[in-house]
């Protein structure tokens, strides 16, 4: 009974996360489309480059007055292609997170149906690890071109890497479980 | 797998059908089929004992090692 309750709450959390993620995708797309129609609306808006704990930055043009530690840029100064790059980067990450949650939901559903150590769950964890690797690769660089200043930096998100590693380990555990299950099924 | 199951040979020798042995040993037709087709990964001593008892034979009459 406790197990079912836990799975129920895990499933509910996943569904809420999916709704939030889809909402964020729509919101992000709305802002980009609106920015193209009415760029003046965003004149006072600021954009902060996401920074991880480990950061190697390489300013393309040195403009000491514009390059500060917080790496905050006025949206009005951003070059359009820079906005598109940021948009595609964020969109890809959100879509990949939706897919990660989707695969996790499949695993929870399989566990609920007492189909835990099955090939499909092994594949689901391998897919999750693959998606997390892509999220890590996409999120490890930031490129912002504002005015005559370009900023390119590498930010490594180790939490994503740890999650990816955990997914691969879980995939291996489930693969072993699946092998034992199949062996048990073929024991007469 | 180099272990060959000669269950069908013993059944033919004893003139017994698959359904009959399955009923007497108490295992399902699906499991007998797995055993006969050589898909089984393992066999329990209890199953082997029951088969040997019903067919009046030795485990070596049912199982055979053949090098690949």
Automatic annotation (TrEMBL), chain A:
Name of protein: DUF2975 domain-containing protein
Pfam families: DUF2975
InterPro entries: DUF2975 (IPR021354)
Keywords, comma-separated and alphabetical: Membrane, Transmembrane, Transmembrane helix
Residue ranges of the TM segments: 7-33, 81-100, 128-146, 152-171
Organism: Adhaeribacter soli
UniProtKB/TrEMBL annotation, chain B:
UniProt cross-references to Pfam families, sorted A to Z: HTH_26 (PF13443)
CDD domains: HTH_XRE
InterPro entries in the record: Cro/C1-type_HTH, Lambda_DNA-bd_dom_sf
Source organism superkingdom: Bacteria
GO MF term list: DNA binding
Domain annotation HTH cro/C1-type: ranges: 13-62
Name under which the protein is recorded: Helix-turn-helix transcriptional regulator
Organism: Adhaeribacter soli
């Amino acid at each position: 009974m406790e197990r079912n309750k836990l799975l129920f709450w895990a499933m509910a959390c996943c569904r809420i996360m999916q709704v939030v993620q889809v909402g964020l995708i729509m919101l992000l797309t709305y802002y980009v489309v609106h920015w193209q129609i009415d760029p003046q609306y965003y004149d006072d808006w600021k954009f902060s480059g996401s920074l991880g704990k480990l950061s190697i930055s390489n300013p393309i043009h040195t403009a000491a007055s514009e390059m500060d530690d917080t790496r905050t840029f006025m949206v009005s100064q951003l070059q359009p292609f820079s906005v598109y790059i940021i948009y595609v980067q964020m969109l890809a990450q959100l879509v990949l997170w939706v897919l990660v949650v989707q695969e996790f939901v499949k695993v929870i559903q399989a566990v609920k149906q007492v189909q835990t150590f099955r090939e499909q769950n092994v594949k689901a964890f391998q897919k999750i690890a693959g998606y997390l690797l892509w999220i890590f690769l996409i999120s490890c660089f930031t490129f912002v071109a504002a005015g005559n200043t370009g900023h390119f930096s590498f930010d490594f998100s180790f939490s994503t890497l740890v999650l990816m590693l955990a997914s691969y380990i879980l995939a291996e555990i489930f693969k072993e479980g699946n092998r034992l299950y199949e062996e048990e099924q073929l024991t007469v | 797998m180099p272990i060959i199951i000669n269950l069908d040979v013993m059944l033919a020798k004893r003139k017994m059908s698959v359904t009959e042995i399955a009923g007497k040993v108490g295992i399902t037709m699906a499991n007998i089929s797995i055993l006969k087709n050589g898909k089984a990964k393992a066999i329990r001593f209890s199953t082997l004992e029951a088969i040997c008892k019903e067919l009046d034979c030795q485990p070596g009459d049912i199982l055979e090692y053949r090098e690949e």
